[in-house]
Amino acid sequence: MTRTKLLILIFLPVFTFCAIYLNWNQGPFNFSGPYFAGKMFIWLSFIAFSIYSGYCTYHENLLVTLCGICQYHFGRQVCLDLYIGAGLILFVMFLNEPTLISFLAWMIPTIFYVNLIGLLYFAIHFDSLVARFLI
What we know:
Distance between the termini: 47 Å
Oligomer: single chain
Shape: globular
Radius of gyration: 16 Å
Order of helices and strands: HHHHHHH
Helix content: over 70%
Strand content: under 5%
Largest sheet: none
Structural class: mainly alpha
Number of helices: 7
């Protein structure tokens, strides 16, 4: 296993632990309230997607795979779509975060992990996002 793969596999659990610890006041594991099923779904999606991403990282080389995919029009469209979605996730984070520093702390890993960090952010901040955007 290369050092890059090892770094990718280690960084996500470390970032997840730090994010949960630093945002404990958000009640990331409080599953009460009218929208508890949505929060549970997001946590389960994050866990499942993290496991699958770890599996893929262990068995494949991301850059080689992306270079192969980007030779096709739909491959480029899928990559573009992924980063348009990342832009939307970052915009929601920007609207919800109280300081620029906390936004940047979420933005940097989002550039590399995209949807995984988005799911983690939505799971941790679920109640504040629901209160801000739905109620």
